[in-house]
Amino acid sequence: MTSISVNRDDEDLRITIIGAGTIGLSLAALHLTYLKTPSNLTIVDVRPDLESHILRALPAYLPQRLHIRVPQVKMASSVPAAVKDSAIVQECGPENLAFKSALWSEVESHAPPDALFWTSTSGIPASHQNVQMRDPSRLIVVHPFNPPHILPLLEVVPSPQTSQSVIDLTVGFWRRRGRQPVLLQKEITGFVAGRLAWVLLREAIHLVDQGIVTVEQLDRIIENSMGPRWAYAGPFKSFHAGGGPGGLEALLKNVSPTVQACWDDAGKVNMGDSWEDKVFRQVRESYGALDLEERDLANRKVLQTVQEVKRETKVQD
Amino acid sequence: MTSISVNRDDEDLRITIIGAGTIGLSLAALHLTYLKTPSNLTIVDVRPDLESHILRALPAYLPQRLHIRVPQVKMASSVPAAVKDSAIVQECGPENLAFKSALWSEVESHAPPDALFWTSTSGIPASHQNVQMRDPSRLIVVHPFNPPHILPLLEVVPSPQTSQSVIDLTVGFWRRRGRQPVLLQKEITGFVAGRLAWVLLREAIHLVDQGIVTVEQLDRIIENSMGPRWAYAGPFKSFHAGGGPGGLEALLKNVSPTVQACWDDAGKVNMGDSWEDKVFRQVRESYGALDLEERDLANRKVLQTVQEVKRETKVQD
């Protein structure tokens, strides 16, 4: 196992992002807001229009005052040179095991021995991606929630081989950035945020497919109930608060038959089933092309609002 | 089928709340904020300390300036007198079919022929509750999300017998109150918000039970990802926005194997299983008694924030 250390002065770390898609650019923007030296950030992608793509797309993820940093970002089309001085290599490439495991073997051969290796995968655990590495203890999942330059969650998921120092340095880095790294105890399919979101979406699809509500009605239901509720307190804390002195236990015991009936009756739609046409059409017709600027502003302000309330009432956690 | 009409001047309607529990008081508070004449609100409950209970508990649901209205609220211990002049009877009693069906038969015998009958049940459909009524077309589910004096959602769920005029008057009333009534097309176990929340909670329980995350970590995951996200846009709209030009369809096709794997691997815990001790203990130890004032303030401000962003960017819906 390699001994790994990362410069405590995070602002000056050399960071390489692999993949210039939505997540890659959003993470690049996040790093750019902290780096004193924008040229310490490198973005690698094989697309032939990489430079014009980044100059066009990256500013949208940044506040106006930081647009000036965009042209200073380094760009590269091949991995070896791009990672050779990196303290952090953060992969945001395609969800493809063959791609990722070949990539990490290449990265490992060219990056400094104390560089951190992070994969943004939403579903392929580090223990599958690290099989071609000489030192599999170096790889860890750092799964962001889209868009990561706004939403603070990072699921940190070590493989059984990941070293404790890699875990500690990864969590520490993101804490110092003011983000919310959450360390999962074990690898699991889809990690936690994904599993929770997908299981709710499955039921949502079922309810639209059954004609109980439309796509728009279902969204409106969430926006006026669980959404604002869970922006402040997750489901356990919220249901615990709703249960009075007896808390979650009293609440669940009180509605136990309904809860169990909902679980027994939950929809079992699958990818590729006949719901797809109906649901995709409704979504397109209801929403068309969406205003991401409004979304980003709303998400930022909601996060700020919750922090302000917690600060004011001094129950900050 | 009775012909039903409700005075358009909602502020002066006589409203009777049956049940002085958490939901009953929260709805009473909501009505009190609109009524010109607080004595038009009656709260019925068989508890012997009803008056002291209401005088003590109801103010907590109201802004300071409206505390003065609390002593003017009428109280009653039996249904017939309490409903005889009511335009709206809103039931917030125990989740017990025998109780509810006997109640509606009694209410129907004493209330005016054009009164609206609303049940706040979280799980017993109107078609089960209306079996002893002479005119089952009068009953409709109006399911709030706790606490309804803050969270705007009301799931309006007619039975197959409910008349169109009852549906229209119910939806119209809540729209004029600035709330968010959502009309479900068919009765279904647990309605929509409940089914979505319970299915996510089931997976959350599974993940804690399996030792993947703690209760606090799971809540923190939601508070920093889906919570703020869904406060602005529900899951369909959010995933559609996250999918780029191809929208929801492109996004799901892209991660289809992971989504299906999460669905196939979803937890199947049941009420009463061995997870209960572990999860309930963790929740108690993590949260103890919670500060509802902070929660209420946060929920209100998050809702306001989203409305302000939508107004400012003029994409108000």
Report on this structure.
The structure is a homodimer of 317-residue chains. Chain A has 317 residues and is α/β, with parallel strands linked by helices. The first copy, chain A, is 47% helix and 11% strand. Chain A has 14 helices and eight strands. Chain A has helices spanning 22-32, 50-57, 79-83, 97-110, 126-129, 164-176, 191-209, 215-223, 226-232, 235-242, 247-254, 256-265, 275-287, 292-312, and strands at 15-18, 41-44, 74-76, 88-91, 116-119, 139-144, 153-158, 180-183. In chain A, 49% of the residues are buried. The mean pLDDT of chain A is 95. At the A-B interface, strand 8, helix 7, helix 8, helix 9 and helix 10 of A face strand 8, helix 7, helix 8, helix 9 and helix 10 of B. Chains A, B: InterPro entries: 3-OHacyl-CoA_DH_NAD-bd, 3HC_DH_C, 6-PGluconate_DH-like_C_sf, 6PGD_dom2, NAD(P)-bd_dom_sf. Chains A, B: The chain crosses the membrane at residues 12-34.
Going across the biggest sheet of chain A, name each strand in turn.
3-2-1-4-5-6-7-8
Low-pLDDT regions of chain A: none
Distance from first to last alpha carbon of chain A: 35 Å
Number of helices of chain A: 14
Principal-axis shape of chain A equals globular
Tell me the total number of β-strands of chain A. Answer: 8
The fraction of residues assigned to DSSP E strands of chain A is 5-15%
Structural class of the helix and strand makeup of chain A?
alpha/beta
Oligomer: homodimer
Largest sheet of chain A at a glance? Answer: 8 strands, mixed
Portion in helices of chain A: 40-55%
Rg over C-alpha atoms of chain A, rounded to the nearest angstrom? 22 Å
Instruction: Give the largest interface.
Output: A-B, 115 and 114 residues
Q: What is the H-and-E element order of chain A?
A: EHEHEHEHEHEEHEHHHHHHHH
Mean of pLDDT of chain A: 95
